[in-house]
Amino acid sequence: MIYFDNAATTPVKKEVLDAMLPYFSEKFGNASSVYQFGQQSATAILEARQKVADALCCKPGEIFFTGCGSEADNWAIKGVAYANRNKGKHIITTAIEHHAVLHTCQYLEKQGFEVTYLPVDEYGKIRLDELKAAIREDTVLISVMFANNEIGTIQPIKEIAEIAKEYNILFHTDAVQAIGAVSINVNELGIDLLSLSGHKFGGPKGVGALYIRSGVRIDNFMHGGGQERFKRAGTENTAGIVGLGEAIKLATENLSEKTEKIKSIRDYIITNIEEKIPYCRLNGHPTDRLCGNVNFCFEFIEGEGMLLLLDMNGISASSGSACTSGSLDPSHVLLAIGIPHGIAHGSLRVSIGEINTMADAEKLIEVLPGIIQRLRDMSPLYEEHLKNN
Fold first, then answer.
1. Confidence at 361, pLDDT banded by 50, 70, 90
2. In whole angstroms, what is the distance from residue 105 CA to residue 118 CA?
3. At residue 70, does pLDDT exceed 60?
4. Cα–Cα distance between 65 and 228 in angstroms, integer?
5. Cα separation of 3 and 178, whole Å?
6. Contact present, 377 and 282 (Cβ < 8 Å)
7. Sequence-ordered list of residues with C-beta below 8 angstroms from that of 240, at least 6 positions apart, any chain
8. Do residues 113 and 87 make contact, with C-beta atoms less than 8 angstroms apart?
9. Are 72 and 222 in contact (CB under 8 A)?
10. Residue 217: partners with Cβ closer than 8 Å, 6 or more residues away
11. Residue 105 to residue 100: CA distance in whole angstroms
12. Helices (DSSP H) in the chain: which residue ranges?
């Protein structure tokens, strides 16, 4: 099997699994216990927190572990909104955010908050002048994802943060797709809150983290015990946290070397699809995009049939976010960048990871043109197009 859906999830690296295993068995102590057996777990969590802090160039006391990236997004947005509602009830985000952000904002709208959803250009980038124009006196938070999970477009994060700082507004970014693909220094970029998820870069599922800059006012997300310095209650997932720490350390080591290899595979796929398959469109920014992201729309086909035929050829890919794979609606991201409804249904996302090789890309290019043509030969729309042209 060739796995080209690394944006959905990645395999746990062997080094990560080896680091985790003792905390399921012989080192199973509760990190809140004062005796030595429990303090083994507490020390392991401290070490993992330092690894995440090192990766983001921040202080370990600014890292808080969560159950996933979606929880981190929820906590960042709800926590800031509720803690600062005396200052204002206006939030700015974008139309192409992950649903963990969009649905959280929609929930807050039902609680009396107001949200501005910024449009994006044809490549999926926000316009900084529109961001400035959307700011109000009662704006308390700007939340813009670092890189889009479907089309790979990287936003101008530093410039957004500078605008937020100019107006004394907190800035949150969902960086779930960016860790391990882009070098991130939260202080140099001016980020106040950042969400990440372990399973996107070789770590386990069920664990994420939220960076909260020191001094940021934010409500607690869960109440109960004193874990995570009284901000996020619940017995720590020690094994998962250890895995997250090891995974982020590995993911950010030799980053430029790894991303160049992945980028070469990406560019090979893009070039060959554009050369060999007519009536296609590359989605996302041509240069400011994740090194492992390829996203195309193919006219006159349905994406589901394409994915099934790819699977029959031993290739796993997707048509968009795994979180909306059961939806019959086309991607909200593709619609937001101006793709017509009918064409958006024929999308393919190939997300490349460290496990992939150029041979994998060659196999994809070997079978994909035939799959597209087979589907088009069954399409009345394609038949009509040929008659009219």
1. very high
2. 13
3. yes
4. 7
5. 19
6. no
7. 20, 198, 203, 204, 206, 207
8. no
9. no
10. 80, 83, 84
11. 9
12. 14-20, 36-56, 69-83, 99-110, 128-134, 157-166, 186-189, 238-252, 255-276, 303-312, 332-336, 341-344, 358-377, 380-388
| Contact in structure between 227 and 94 (CB atoms under 8 Å) | no
User: Are 365 and 380 within 8 A, CB to CB?
Assistant: no
Over residues 74-102, the pLDDT tens digits come to 999 999 999 999 999 999 999 999 999 99
Among 57, 280, 291, 323, which one carries the catalytic annotation?
Answer: 323
Beta bridge partners of 32: none
Residue 326: per-residue pLDDT: 53
Q: Is the pTM of this model over 0.90?
A: yes
> Which amino acid is it at 28?
F
Known catalytic residue at 323: yes
pLDDT band at residue 327 using 50, 70 and 90 as cut-offs: low
Question: 62 by DSSP, 3-state: which?
Answer: helix
Helices (H) and strands (E) in the chain, counts: 14, 12
CA-CA distance, 116 to 59, in Å (whole number)? 32
Is residue 315's pLDDT more than 70? Answer: yes
pLDDT at 206 exceeding the cut of 90: yes
> Within its chain, how far is the Cα of 112 from the centroid?
28
Query: φ, ψ for residue 239 (rounded to 5)?
Result: -60, -45
Q: Indicate the helix (H) or strand (E) that contains 68.
A: none
